[in-house]
Task: structure prediction
Amino acid sequence: CAKKAKPHKDDKKDLATCRVLLAELETHQDAWPFLKPVDLKAVPGYRKVIKKPMDFSTIREKLNNSQQNNELFLCTFIIDVNLVFDNCERFNEDDSEIGRAGHNMRRFFDKRWTELLQ
Ligand SMILES: Cc1ncccc1N[C@@H](C)c1cnc2ccsc2c1
Result:
């Protein structure tokens, strides 16, 4: 994903852009299944099936802790957001409330990050 990001000179804006993008994801009407980590005790099988759980609050924590000068933060951000949607597809039927929410959110993210970061 690094190669797709804007040239190094625009790195300054990328962290702010990731924050804007994350805020848009968190306030999206279909974000509700992804706001907090899945409760591994409450959801049977989740711990076994999903090797790398991820959610928007964890991504926000990582973004808040990421160093501006560590240019990997942009790739890490994109990978983590996609992990949320990949986990959702793996565990949930496409034709389910959560499955549909995941597809909607991925479509929204793909559009917005292309507009803002490429
Ligand atoms: C993203 C995801 N994938 C698989 C299972 C759960 C979840 N989300 C959690 C928050 C969650 C946990 N419990 C419930 C109960 C009804 S909707 C819902 C959502």
